[in-house]
């Protein structure tokens, strides 16, 4: 098991490629952005709307707005990328055999791509009118 870098200097020393360093930076930035996106989503979904206003029609009207679709898609995209990269770290740490690691990662990335595609299609193909 490898110990992941906590500072930018450690990350530069441990990174084998610029891509690894960029993913390290992405995890920090996306985690921070996700905090605000999720808190905003929770506020707009559960605090701003009263229980009597939380109807199917309210959700349909919300998703009719392209800005809301983009907000939800951004939340989906960052969450999937952030979670997938974190799982990639775990796969690299715990699957020791190179052939096993390759098929586990490829299978995992395929499942993630299918879920992301279904989420995107479901979100943008939704047209209430």
Automatic annotation (TrEMBL):
Protein keywords: Heme, Iron, Membrane, Metal-binding, Transmembrane, Transmembrane helix
Signal peptide stretch: none
Annotated GO CC locations: membrane
Residue spans crossing the bilayer: 21-43, 70-91, 103-126
Coiled coil: none
Keyword Iron: yes
Compartments where located: Membrane
GO MF, one example: metal ion binding
InterPro entries: SQR/QFR_C/D, SuccDH_FuR_B_TM-su
Record protein name field: Succinate dehydrogenase
Source species taxonomy: Bacteria, Thermotogati, Deinococcota, Deinococci, Deinococcales
């Amino acid at each position: 098991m490898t110990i992941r870098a906590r500072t930018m200097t450690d990350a530069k020393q441990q990174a084998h490629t610029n891509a690894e360093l960029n993913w390290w930076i992405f995890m920090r930035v996306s985690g921070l952005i996700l905090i605000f996106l999720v808190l905003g989503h929770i506020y707009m979904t559960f605090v701003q709307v009263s229980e009597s206003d939380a109807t199917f029609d309210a959700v349909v009207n919300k998703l009719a707005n392209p800005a809301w679709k983009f907000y939800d898609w951004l939340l989906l995209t960052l969450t999937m990328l952030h979670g997938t990269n974190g799982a990639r770290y775990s796969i690299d740490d715990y699957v020791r055999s190179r052939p096993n690691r390759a098929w586990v990662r490829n299978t995992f990335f395929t499942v993630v791509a299918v879920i992301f595609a279904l989420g995107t299609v479901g979100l943008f193909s939704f047209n209430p009118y």
